[in-house]
Specification:
Blueprint lengths: L12 H8 L9 H19 L4 H24 L7 H12 L6 H10 L9 H22 L6 H13 L5
Length: 166
């Protein structure tokens, strides 16, 4: 099961990606979960360790920018669909609500493709809007569920019923 149709391109490093990163059960994106977890974990750790604020700000910005870049990359190489990103951000909001707040997610989404030279501005806005709308939908549904997975299961079932899952 996947939400993305990967191109059959096996040259160079793409061969390695196809061999070692099978494209199944990709919602929510573990790539996005890991990078968001990393930058929020280190942000908290820098504070707890008493890292000087100016140094922590530089490190936090680097980690945040890296998380955004990796998130963009999973779309560029069709590792994930645009739907896998809000699913991951929603999961992190529910799993680590103190670190990944809705405001943090809005900030993260708002920086996607900010400096892209290859994605047109209208497409950037459409991508962000889709990600934000799906995140908000999952988040609002999740407010009524004890288990954070339930809204994702509902979405996957609806997506499959519409014939979009491969």
């Amino acid at each position: 099961m996947t939400t993305t149709q990967r191109p059959a391109y096996y040259k160079g490093h793409f061969r390695i990606i196809h061999m070692f990163d099978p494209h199944y059960l990709c919602v929510p994106s573990l790539h996005v979960i890991i990078v968001v977890l990393a930058y929020t974990f280190y942000r908290k750790a820098f504070t707890e360790l008493g890292i000087p604020q100016d140094e922590a700000d530089i490190l936090n910005r680097e980690l945040f920018d890296g998380a955004v870049a990796i998130t963009e990359t999973v779309l560029y190489i069709k590792q994930h669909s645009v739907n896998c990103i809000p699913a991951a951000l929603y999961a992190m909001t529910r799993i680590t609500p103190d670190e990944v707040t809705p405001a943090e997610v809005v900030r993260f989404i708002g920086t996607l493709f900010e400096s892209s030279a290859t994605v047109e501005k209208k497409d950037v806005l459409a991508i962000r809007e889709h990600i934000l709308d799906m995140y908000e939908s999952l988040f609002l549904q999740g407010c009524h569920d004890d288990n954070w997975i339930t809204p994702l299961q509902r979405w996957l079932n609806a997506y499959a019923a519409a014939g979009f899952l491969n």
